[in-house]
Amino acid sequence: MKKIILFLLLFLAAIGIDYEINSISVIHLSNVNALFLLVAILLLSLYIIPVIFLLSCYKKYFSTPIYLLSISLVFGCFIPGWMAAYGNETAKFVTDFFIQGSSSLNAWINALTTSLTEEILKGACGIGVIYLLGKRNLSDVFIIGTCVGLGFQIVEDISYIVNQASESMKEIFPQTMLRISGALSSHWAYTGLFVLGVFCLRNKNCGISSKRKYLWVLSPIVLHFLWNSPLNEWMLGDIPMVSALLTTVTLLLIIQTVHYFLQIEKDHKTVKV
């Protein structure tokens, strides 16, 4: 079974590498604009570097092997992204075909289908990595999901910036800042929670309450849906109240989950002593 999973992951990643590289190579920019594009992409390090630092702290405390983070990140970069692109495009075509003349309803439905498509695909990738590596520790499961989500997030952000460069260079840096501002509680958090919840649901003897399991599974989908929905466009003057609230809730869930792992680790050490 592991050989099949390894083959599928490598095969899908190989497709993803070609897809992502070709999506960048097809745009034609002058040397100056190409330099601006490169600078915009490098600006993503404003959130990538702090996240990697936090992951290294997590790795050190929970004794997580570095290969686990690396493999999850690479597969997250090149597997769910291109699949989600086709999935979202298909779902939008079906939605627009059956619901015509109602742009508002379409926006809500597209927000839901996008959230479901992306979370399921990222989750499947994360679960595949978990079973490939034979991991059963909850802290390892969570970090695998987090790294898969981070990989997806980085590639998605680059894709948005590249697409913006192909349309209008005037908006490339505003688009980049928008991606950075939304990175605080984005795919890395959603996928970490979702994969953890799915794993626990599949392992009934893991000692986790049903309430916590379903919270981990459903909260990323709901939060992702609300973030993509027209509701997130609501502002209180110049203050983005909805996005701030969603970010706060997401981070609280992450903090609560990591605290739970710390408590398990503490109890384990106490019992061990």
From TrEMBL:
GO MF: peptidase activity
InterPro entries in alphabetical order: PrsW
TM ranges: 32-55, 67-87, 182-201, 213-229, 241-262
A family per Pfam: PrsW-protease
Keywords (A to Z) from UniProt: Membrane, Transmembrane, Transmembrane helix
Keyword set includes Membrane: yes
The name this protein goes by in its record: PrsW family intramembrane metalloprotease
Organism name: Enterococcus villorum
